[in-house]
Amino acid sequence: MEAVKRCSRCRNEKPISAFPRRSISDSRPLSRCKQCYSELNTLLYRRMHPGNRHRTPKLSESQWQEIRQRGQLVCSRCHTEKPLADFPVRRSCGKDYFARDCRPCRKKRKAQWCDANQQRLWDRAVRYKCPQYGITPDDYRQMLARQKYCCALCERPLPMKWQTIDHDHSTGVVRGIVHRACNLVIGNASEDIEVLHRAIAYLQRHKSGQVPVAIAPDAIQYS
Question: Under a CB-based contact definition with an 8 Å cutoff, are residues 165 and 139 in contact?
Answer without folding.
Answer: no
